[in-house]
Amino acid sequence: MSSLKEINPISTNTENSRFHPLDQLTGDEIMTVAEIVRKGVPNLNIVFNTITLKEPKKELMMSYLGWDTTKPRITKIEREALVVALEKPSMKCYEALVSLDNGQLKRFEHIPDVQPILTMDEMFEVEELVAKDPRVQAECRELGIEDMSCVFSDPWAIARHVTYKGRSKRMMQALMYMRTCEDDNQYAHPLDFVPIIDLGLMKVVDIERIKPRDSKFTRPTIPLEKHNFLPEFVGEENFRKDIKPIIVQQPEGVSFKVKGTEIDWQKWNMKISMNYREGLVIHNVSYQDGAEKRPLFYRISLSEMVVPYADPFTPHNRKHAFDVGEYGLGLCTNTLTLGCDCLGSIYYFDATFNDHNGKPFHVPNAICLHEEDAGILFKHTDYRNGRAHAVRSRRLVISQIVTVANYDYGLYYYFYQDGSFQYEVKATGELNTHVLAEDETPGPYGVMVAPQINAQYHQHFFTMRIDPMVDGANNSICKVDTQRVPHATGHPNNMYGNGFYSESTILKDTAEGQQTANYETARFWKIINENRIHPYSKGPVGWKIVSNHHTPLFAQDDSVVGQRAGFAKKALWVTPYNENQIFAGGFYCNQSDGDDNVEHWVKDVQSIQNKDIVLWYTFGVTHLPRVEDFPVMPVEMCGFSMKPCNFFMANPGIDVPPTNKGINHSKLASKEKENKAACCTKL
Amino acid sequence: MSSLKEINPISTNTENSRFHPLDQLTGDEIMTVAEIVRKGVPNLNIVFNTITLKEPKKELMMSYLGWDTTKPRITKIEREALVVALEKPSMKCYEALVSLDNGQLKRFEHIPDVQPILTMDEMFEVEELVAKDPRVQAECRELGIEDMSCVFSDPWAIARHVTYKGRSKRMMQALMYMRTCEDDNQYAHPLDFVPIIDLGLMKVVDIERIKPRDSKFTRPTIPLEKHNFLPEFVGEENFRKDIKPIIVQQPEGVSFKVKGTEIDWQKWNMKISMNYREGLVIHNVSYQDGAEKRPLFYRISLSEMVVPYADPFTPHNRKHAFDVGEYGLGLCTNTLTLGCDCLGSIYYFDATFNDHNGKPFHVPNAICLHEEDAGILFKHTDYRNGRAHAVRSRRLVISQIVTVANYDYGLYYYFYQDGSFQYEVKATGELNTHVLAEDETPGPYGVMVAPQINAQYHQHFFTMRIDPMVDGANNSICKVDTQRVPHATGHPNNMYGNGFYSESTILKDTAEGQQTANYETARFWKIINENRIHPYSKGPVGWKIVSNHHTPLFAQDDSVVGQRAGFAKKALWVTPYNENQIFAGGFYCNQSDGDDNVEHWVKDVQSIQNKDIVLWYTFGVTHLPRVEDFPVMPVEMCGFSMKPCNFFMANPGIDVPPTNKGINHSKLASKEKENKAACCTKL
Ligand SMILES: [Co+2]
Ligand SMILES: [Co+2]
């Protein structure tokens, strides 16, 4: 999450600039919208939950982009803002739609039985509230803590609480820690109780004690041993001294062009945006293939996440964070630092969100755009004469880093010169920890990363929403399975037994569109356009989607998390495009019970063949923490990629020029050290 | 493979330098060894197949390294060379052992019924022979080729031929192509017949015609359309003009230290070597953990590969190249180019092998050693106050690139500052192609990447030999499976249904040591030392081995390739250490029938628990080619990694200092372009 220090309201001067329809709201627009809503409902005591651009309808955008040539081209689209507000103290939820073109409040309605996303303001309010609560203070005193300034809490979404279930009340739970000094790592000192907070009452309504299991103790003591990674604790004198700088420079400038938030790079063209929820979104991706500009994707984003924990006992069962739908990848985004988060020649984009009062808060350097060398792109040597041709791969990186309480995620979109696309998540930050009594063990649900510190097993699921546009709006999905030839060795059709083949199956409807990973058949999926046949392969042009990071959801299908995070049960779901289906876990994910998620949407069987479709693609990791993940976790990566698959007429990267030491100033390390023997050292 | 141009005999002056026991033979030593063997068997007409260092016995090395403290330390180990030679024209195989310390021929014996590795000399001889053969010329004439200088062949190992089976004869098969001009891509013009060559007779003994299937033609015509990627064909005027240089520099020098072929970097210490067979080998890896230098791995190498093709019909069934055992990753290694293969500050090592005459050939720049920035190593932000700490990851890269006829593989060993290790294969180069008649299709076994050009489906398996030494010679392997708690939602032990747990099983013997990948349980394996218990986790210290690139062998178990490449049937085999078991497919892999491979070795059940053990770990890809893989393939990556898993007392990277723009000169791209608006562009 962005720090409080960075929350600077920006200037309120009216702007005259014209917007691209996908440009996010400016600070001024946020204030204007808040004002319009307040004036529209003067008798309601509301706080603003989110104020965000209402993305234009796809059919309008398709025309605006020139991607739909069946209708006259639209050049202006009404600019609208979508507002979610909460009435105080009832915590009733309202939605408003505001036209920024004419300042009109077009819609304002109560949305019953939902709870919108949690906000930064609420995180801070809850932590303050908890520390002041007498029962919390009593709990702390019993643990030996008198000074409440040492006590910290990570407010979490409540999930679905056995007592406080439903959504009529807006609830949170607080995971409790202490610090032994300023900036001490609190995850080394977890406390054994969980306050439950009613945000309407702004009150701690319950405190749940986590009882030791199979222990002679009724309560664990607080582990006081420090486990820190910040420089003042490690001690600069203990830093490694033997790491020499690597300097990455582009003295002739970068290879990308930016206009507003539209990016042109190496035949790729796209528009980016960042909203409070999905964070970075990639819009309207196309590729210049000779004279033809071919559309590929209408919109790609990380639609939802869930991080379910393994321990079946209360309150751990409620730990299954939906980091997109409960906290927001935009709201939690970091201000990035040049030379630290980002190396080389960096282009930053800022982001702007709203606070409770409808005031903007600005996150500078929220998105990092830069290029990286990515090793060799291709190479071949003719061994006969040593004639070699090697070309280096360059990638365009568009990234953000989010902090969701203990965890931090780096989220990286990569575009390559061979037409491939990759998305990578780097999970880092802090393990969520739980305190054990001195004689207690984590059981088969976790590992002790320090005395009394249980790092519980968990999984991370990332569900991408991919709205494809492969050579047109109507696409299909085919499943590709590879199998042994069904004939024993010696059969005339498999004489030597080596035979195998691949089989493509087009998925017809939302029932078939529910796909699981299959290691046994090296399964992958293709987004194809059945209306365009590749002249060589004789099949539809396509785009292959691959992840090496599928993992099953280990929760029961009918578990609370299984219901709420139905999206994580399958590697892929395919649905017909529906403008209201943007978030795999539902728009109102917080305190949800699973009645508005992708699993629910596919209950009615609908056709998905040769239609405007959307993919919900999930990858993730099963994370069994290691001692080495403490006190801060080295990045753990997962992701997926998409590649042209019989789409272009050849390797689209063969026109990438080779480079050499004259161009990139590569040097012999041995010469730099004037070690003459180095270049003829024999093995 | 290294080019002929690079085969320069090196000086024959006697060297007085002292060797590390694992230093490969010098050119002088190779000549000396050849001379000793020739003098020892003056009446035999032999050619030298391979002359290579006989690696010292492990027990001696363990003492030499100080890793075995139970015996007095050995400081000098006898230097020996192992020679494989072939008698002409019988092609009988001999092994010789030569002491370099006293010039003695210690052993010379006939090895019956084997055929050693194919050599570069044989590749060239066979191609020349084939072009001169009258029956080949007649085939070509019938296809319309009069000028035999246009005809090229890729000589392949014969595999196991239905007629020429067994190993009494030394055989090859030649895959035929033509070129329409110099340096034309021959894989765009495959021919439809396969000469079979007897290397003893040095004669084409048969020609197999590949008949079109379901076609009205009896023979395909040769596709003449050019498909090229070399600059003179693409045309420099057609190169992308919009890619600006990226310059990577280390003005203060590199962070590694090299002494001979021993490398010190960031607490890692290792020795490297390159032999004719496995190419790059990593020896004696240890890690400085505080005051303790902890051994980790005795030896790591790519022990064998196999690339089986899908099409079950002759002669395609014989396409299952063992690139290590049939061609040799050392013999096929490229001379690397600064600024092209390798970017930044590069340290090169050369390699030296032997030719048929026992003369050395030298490959300059065979191994590239350098450092790379690898993104963030870890980051955490306290969202309360924005206090962030991010550290960049540096990796040490040790790599080679090999060319095995059409395919090229980049082979990269990576070491990281968080104690993790990674091995990555980048497959690139040219698809093996097969010509189709104008009306023919590849069936379900391939894809047409251009008219009449069938790129057949295939798999790539890479089997690593990992000789672990995790805190001592005696290690065990445990399998880790994660599963749902076996209780329905609502059961007292799984009230909310989220429960899952992980289970570790120590593998006791070579039967249990045969392991398949299991996506359903997110299975991975750990190398553990049961003699050292981690004080926090309370379990044995360990090292986790993970690949996201397991794929099943689709050939039948009893197929020819299934027998020969038994190693590819499992993700992991574990065997007790045996000094004669270095190559998963057998020492004499060429023309082998599977009687000396890892599958064979484990037939007798032997204990592997708390013993000196070896892992045979296989990863790979099922490669269904795309049109975009032609005429040269963008790199396709696969690999595996090993990480400390409850081995250290904390994240071993917390003492890595942060960097910043002052140190690494990172810059705003927008400032470079003097675009003042850029740093406050709003989304
Ligand atoms: Co995790
Ligand atoms: Co391949």
TrEMBL record, chains A, B:
<feature type="active site" description="Proton acceptor">
    <location>
        <position position="323"/>
    </location>
</feature>
<protein>
    <recommendedName>
        <fullName>Amine oxidase</fullName>
        <ecNumber>1.4.3.-</ecNumber>
    </recommendedName>
</protein>
<dbReference type="InterPro" id="IPR036460">
    <property type="entry name" value="Cu_amine_oxidase_C_sf"/>
</dbReference>
<keyword id="KW-0186">Copper</keyword>
<dbReference type="InterPro" id="IPR015800">
    <property type="entry name" value="Cu_amine_oxidase_N2"/>
</dbReference>
<feature type="active site" description="Schiff-base intermediate with substrate; via topaquinone">
    <location>
        <position position="407"/>
    </location>
</feature>
<dbReference type="InterPro" id="IPR000269">
    <property type="entry name" value="Cu_amine_oxidase"/>
</dbReference>
<keyword id="KW-0464">Manganese</keyword>
<feature type="domain" description="Copper amine oxidase N3-terminal">
    <location>
        <begin position="116"/>
        <end position="209"/>
    </location>
</feature>
<keyword id="KW-1015">Disulfide bond</keyword>
<dbReference type="InterPro" id="IPR049948">
    <property type="entry name" value="Cu_Am_ox_TPQ-bd"/>
</dbReference>
<keyword id="KW-0801">TPQ</keyword>
<dbReference type="InterPro" id="IPR015802">
    <property type="entry name" value="Cu_amine_oxidase_N3"/>
</dbReference>
<dbReference type="GO" id="GO:0005507">
    <property type="term" value="F:copper ion binding"/>
</dbReference>
<dbReference type="GO" id="GO:0009308">
    <property type="term" value="P:amine metabolic process"/>
</dbReference>
<dbReference type="InterPro" id="IPR049947">
    <property type="entry name" value="Cu_Am_Ox_Cu-bd"/>
</dbReference>
<dbReference type="Pfam" id="PF02727">
    <property type="entry name" value="Cu_amine_oxidN2"/>
</dbReference>
<feature type="modified residue" description="2',4',5'-topaquinone">
    <location>
        <position position="407"/>
    </location>
</feature>
<dbReference type="InterPro" id="IPR016182">
    <property type="entry name" value="Cu_amine_oxidase_N-reg"/>
</dbReference>
<comment type="similarity">
    <text>Belongs to the copper/topaquinone oxidase family.</text>
</comment>
<dbReference type="GO" id="GO:0008131">
    <property type="term" value="F:primary methylamine oxidase activity"/>
</dbReference>
<comment type="subunit">
    <text>Homodimer.</text>
</comment>
<feature type="domain" description="Copper amine oxidase N2-terminal">
    <location>
        <begin position="20"/>
        <end position="107"/>
    </location>
</feature>
<dbReference type="Pfam" id="PF01179">
    <property type="entry name" value="Cu_amine_oxid"/>
</dbReference>
<keyword id="KW-0560">Oxidoreductase</keyword>
<feature type="domain" description="Copper amine oxidase catalytic">
    <location>
        <begin position="248"/>
        <end position="653"/>
    </location>
</feature>
<keyword id="KW-0479">Metal-binding</keyword>
<dbReference type="Pfam" id="PF02728">
    <property type="entry name" value="Cu_amine_oxidN3"/>
</dbReference>
<dbReference type="InterPro" id="IPR015798">
    <property type="entry name" value="Cu_amine_oxidase_C"/>
</dbReference>
<dbReference type="GO" id="GO:0048038">
    <property type="term" value="F:quinone binding"/>
</dbReference>
